Amino acid sequence: MLLPMLTDQALITIVVAIAVVLVVGTTGLVVTRRRRRELPAATKPQVEAPETTETTETTEPRVGEDAEEPRDTPTRTLEDTELPETTTTLEKPESAQGRLVRLRARLARSQGSLGKGLLALLSRDKLDEEAWEDIETTLITADVGVAPTQELVEHLRTRMRVEGVGAAQAREILREELVNLVDPSMDRSLKASRKDGQPAVILMVGVNGTGKTTTVGRLARVLIAEDKTVVLGAADTFRAAAADQLQTWGERVGARTVRGPEGGDPASIAFDAVKEGIEEEADVVLVDTAGRLHTKTGLMDELGKVKRVIEKTAEVDEVLLVIDATTGQNGLTQARVFAEVINVTGLVLTKLDGTAKGGIVIAVQRELGVPVKLVGLGEGPDDLAPFEPEQFVDALLD
Ligand SMILES: Nc1nc2c(ncn2[C@@H]2O[C@H](COP(=O)(O)OP(=O)(O)OP(=O)(O)O)[C@@H](O)[C@H]2O)c(=O)[nH]1
Predict the structure, then answer these.
(1) Which of 39, 151, 273, 388 could be 258's S-S partner, Cβ–Cβ 3.0 to 4.6 Å?
(2) CA 186 – ligand 1 centroid, Å
């Protein structure tokens, strides 16, 4: 009704006005939408904490975030902080050559007084009874033992009489006689190779504290350096920390340690270790034992059982008796007891660095008729050396 009343001009004006309103409205809507799309960061909620500190530094604070950490935020303690996991890296042993040179020097340092004392006495112008008595005393004080001392003095007396005296000669004669006494003819090789498709089994025995566990660890290190695979058996279940100590050695050198519960049956652990060695086709299984010396029967029961149980699956190739060189006659008495309860195939004399009485090497070999195969010359991981009679005597006299 209204339309007929409007003029054409008015109608056109209204249509144009409506069109303008529509265009302006639509454009505004589009621009607003575009703006919204262009500002995502401002509207995106920050849910996740930044992963690294770098991000934190570059991220600007946003609405709703605190300008600084609230004071009631608990302080992070050391315990809360997760430390990176430590991975044990295998140690590389010192080269065999370097080790032996160093250990020879150490042996000479510790035993020098014995050799030098003897040489000084033998080089006297007049070798009278008093001089020979002094020589005897020096040898006995150095733990050489009575019988070997008498034997040595007798040989020296004869040779010095026949071959004459003089410092150079005295040294040569003494060297020869000492080497004979230490007996270079004994087989000192260690049976540490697979045979008949089975690993070699080495049992370490000895009184507490003589250095059995340390010797097992150091021997494993030497064998692994020779590219052998080694399994350790923690059959010393008597001392709580012994298995841990052995396992630590195993981790250091790269040998698996078979262990059981504290106070468990040593024979069953020894059996499991050997079984593991057979399954893994290892070259050597080294079994550490407790060697409590309460009673001879107790010791016999324990070691006898360990050996018997191992022998169900494998031969025991070596029984190494570890003796602390600093214990002198006491060490000899212990050695005797062990030799009575188990067939000892070799001796390990530890702590030779801690005594000038290297004569124990001669005494203990004589006593048991078993060769010293290894010597310990310090607490370090590379302080174990094969025993070589000539080098030992040279170290005494240097
Ligand atoms: N100076 C010196 N110390 C040594 C030597 N061998 C071992 N020791 C030390 O002697 C101590 C006892 O050694 P262990 O290996 O624990 O003795 P163990 O016979 O296994 O003792 P138990 O486990 O109690 O039976 C340790 O502090 C070793 O570092 C050596 O050749 N020289």
Answers:
(1) 273
(2) 26
